[in-house]
Design brief:
Layout: H1 6-15, E1 17-22, H2 26-42, H3 60-66, H4 69-79, E2 83-85, E3 88-93, E4 101-104, H5 107-110, E5 112-113, E6 117-123, E7 134-137, E8 149-150, E9 162-163, E10 173-174, E11 181-185, E12 190-193, E13 202-212, E14 216-217, E15 223-228, E16 237-238, H6 248-265
Parallel strand pairs: 15-16
Antiparallel strand pairs: 1-11, 2-13, 2-15, 3-13, 4-12, 5-14, 6-11, 6-13, 7-10, 7-12, 8-9
Bound molecules: 2-oxoglutaric acid.
Length: 275
């Protein structure tokens, strides 16, 4: 059932994002962190590079988050009741590293049309100005897709370091979240994030994105799961639902999905980045 108030929906329409929304308890957020850190210990490098994507295919803990009713109720308010999960990404900035995200619009290289989709950024740790939370340029989603320079900076957490230049920083807004809260943002809102200057990791588990079942992938192939409602369009192949962490057959599907995603991310690129 749609849960955002008219006021929240108006704000989303006006600014291109809405935050904070309480969705998980601190304990649930911490369970996600534990799962990430277990994988990092047992399977070093598995979550690096393209491996930070589609993690809901190899972990029941991540998968459960994508199906959380509080998240889906808010998402339903924006894209309607027929909801598919088309991807997840871990955005991790470790303390004392130089990770950042240049200003960009998600819709630029992702191939999801029409734009009946929304990205849920779920805070696994607190996210604030000090540790490099996202910052949004309110209202920018109402404009067309902008020119992005391809910079291939190895500290940039975006695939090709796609960058919109000259964003007026004084007009941007920090998206401050406590662990367990989320923000929802529009496919064309301009956003990015700065360095983590704290002593702990900053972790976002990002459903990128929830799409209406009417949304097609026009650049390649994605693997979806049904979150809610009906899929009359049947544009996409369905993925497995993981029953155990890193089960062998799930790893095979994960690898296939990551390969296809990588092809989409780098269409037309002169070279490949780290992710
Ligand atoms: O985690 C970040 O700092 C940026 C994430 C982002 O760009 C996104 O979720 O679309």
């Amino acid at each position: 059932m749609a849960s955002l108030s008219d006021q929240q929906i108006n704000l989303y329409n006006q600014k291109g994002y809405i935050a904070p929304i309480n969705v998980l308890s601190k304990q649930e957020a911490n369970e996600i962190r534990q799962e990430i850190e277990t994988i990092e210990k047992k399977w070093p490098n598995a979550l690096e590079g393209i491996g930070r994507n589609y993690v809901h295919l190899i972990s029941p803990v991540f998968n459960k988050v994508c199906l959380n009713n509080k998240i889906l109720d808010a998402v339903e308010s924006i894209i309607g009741k027929n909801i598919l999960i088309c991807g997840t990404t871990l955005f991790i900035k470790n303390a004392n590293e130089k990770g950042f995200v240049s200003f960009h619009q998600d819709a630029k290289y992702i191939g999801l049309e029409p734009h009946n989709w929304v990205t849920a950024w779920i805070a696994v740790t607190d996210a604030n100005e000090k540790n490099g939370c996202m910052r949004m340029l309110p209202g920018s989603h109402k404009e067309n897709l902008k020119k992005h320079e391809q910079k291939f900076d190895e500290n940039n957490l975006l695939t090709r370091s796609q960058t919109i230049e000259n964003v007026p920083l004084e007009k941007t807004e920090f998206v401050v979240l406590k662990a367990g809260q989320m923000s929802l943002h529009h496919p064309t809102v301009v956003h990015g994030s700065g360095l983590n200057k704290s002593n702990d990791r900053r972790i976002g588990f990002v459903v990128q994105s929830y799409i209406g079942s009417n949304v097609d992938q026009v650049l390649g192939k994605i693997y979806v799961q049904k979150a809610r409602g009906e899929d009359k369009h049947k544009f996409h192949q369905y993925s497995n639902i993981p029953k155990a962490l890193m089960a062998e057959e799930d790893i095979l599907s994960w690898n296939k999905a990551k390969d296809e995603l990588s092809k989409i991310f780098y269409i037309g690129a002169k070279k490949k980045g780290k992710y």
